[in-house]
Design brief:
Blueprint lengths: L2 E2 L2 E2 L37 H16 L10 H4 L3
Antiparallel strand pairs: 1-2
Length: 78
């Protein structure tokens, strides 16, 4: 991002240059051993996944899915 007088200059992603692979810094991921239930690894796949599946259902059936988790009755009479 570019800052000028404390303000971000890009208004959205179209104005933000995305890093190319050769520009990307090395990223190291460490999974910390724990006795706690699993969390944190891969959680970011959830937010974009659900709308993508719901949109795929709509594209295939014409039926909009408006709640999660998607239930069998949501797909009936599609």
């Amino acid at each position: 991002m570019t800052l000028e007088k404390g303000r971000v200059q890009q208004s959205n992603f179209h104005g933000y240059p995305v890093l190319q692979f050769d520009e990307m810094p090395i990223v190291e991921v460490y999974i910390v051993p724990s006795n706690e239930p699993p969390s944190g690894v891969g959680e970011m796949s959830g937010p974009p996944l659900t709308p993508a599946v719901a949109n795929a259902v709509f594209a295939a059936t014409g039926k909009r899915i408006r709640r999660i988790p998607i239930q069998g009755e949501d797909l009936r009479n599609a």
